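Postdoc handover notes: sequence design on the structure in folder B. Input tokens:
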């Protein structure tokens, strides 16, 4: 058995589950694990939801978000099945104990997914993992209640950038419409995620924009965030979310890059593009991954050295395109 039929069979015979997603979680990761967790609860299954990282404050309003386990040491279940959602790489699950990796169902939409599950349901054409789950729930006759609907709407809303990104399809809007019919409050979700900012977020945004640089040809731009900037503003990792979009939105820019210094010898790099550069290929070159228009990686080295390395690679990409 494969895919959807396999999942249906597993849900019929297995009773304990660990629902997980990637570190540095976004709306799709959080919405997906919460939706599937609530589905399991409604099916009277034993489950825990785990994400090995802090949960951004903006998502705490979602039902069950306050119960997400963020330390592997606090997982108090030996699952028969681990549901890995919205994660293209096993390492990003932040699970060390083999008992959590014995049987994995991998459900994802990243084009860079390496099919690490024992069962893999991967659809790169889906706008979000939340879209895949919506279709799975419908096909499996799993009722979508208001909590699940709000979580799925959050997943789709955030991964499509409020239905602005190129991954938005007619189906994205159709599913959103069906979720709204179930009682989802568009106003509440939009306000919680996009219209509430911390002082720390605004301060770190200001510093990042002060560091903004644009290439001579105007086709790519970048900025960087240092550990000193984080200390000065008291910003958290979640306060950095969305900053890269300001870089990508500069008129004429095709690729935006944000360098985030996480230590003296490690830098997180985010990539965003507008129309024609596939940044998942760029991220993959540096052993990262993601989507055509949104991707990232982690590179060992000092901030200045990493920035030089990445900018040179991007410069060569544009030269090859005649820019």
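Designed sequence:
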């Amino acid at each position: 058995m494969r895919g959807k039929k396999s999942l249906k069979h597993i849900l019929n015979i297995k009773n304990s589950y660990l629902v997980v997603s990637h570190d540095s979680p976004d709306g799709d990761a959080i919405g997906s694990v919460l939706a599937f967790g609530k589905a399991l609860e409604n099916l009277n299954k034993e489950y825990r939801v785990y994400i090995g990282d802090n949960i951004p404050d903006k998502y705490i309003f979602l039902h069950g978000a306050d119960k997400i386990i963020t330390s592997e040491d606090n997982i108090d279940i030996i699952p028969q099945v681990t549901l890995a959602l919205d994660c293209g790489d096993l390492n990003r699950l932040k699970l060390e104990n083999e008992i959590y990796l014995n049987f994995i169902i991998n459900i994802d939409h990243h084009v860079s997914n390496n099919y690490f599950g024992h069962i893999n349901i991967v659809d790169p054409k889906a706008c979000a993992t939340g879209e895949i789950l919506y279709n799975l729930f419908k096909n499996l006759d799993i009722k979508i209640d208001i909590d699940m609907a709000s979580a799925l709407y959050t997943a789709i809303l955030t991964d499509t950038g409020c239905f602005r990104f190129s991954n938005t399809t007619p189906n994205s809007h159709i599913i959103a419409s069906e979720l709204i019919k179930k009682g989802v409050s568009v106003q509440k979700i939009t306000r919680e995620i996009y219209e509430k900012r911390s002082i720390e977020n605004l301060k770190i945004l200001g510093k990042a924009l002060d560091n903004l640089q644009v290439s001579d040809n105007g086709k790519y731009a970048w900025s960087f965030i240092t550990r000193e900037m984080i200390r000065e503003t008291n910003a958290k990792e979640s306060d950095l979310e969305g900053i890269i979009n300001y870089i990508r939105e500069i008129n004429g820019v095709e690729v935006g890059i944000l360098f985030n210094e996480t230590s003296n010898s490690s830098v997180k790099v985010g990539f965003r593009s507008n129309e024609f550069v596939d940044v998942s290929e760029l991220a993959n070159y540096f052993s990262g991954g993601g989507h055509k228009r949104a991707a990232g990686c982690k590179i060992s080295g000092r901030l200045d050295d990493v920035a030089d390395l990445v900018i040179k690679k991007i410069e060569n990409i544009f030269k090859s395109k005649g820019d």
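Context for whoever picks this up: The first helix runs from residue 3 to 13. Don't rerun without checking with the PI first.
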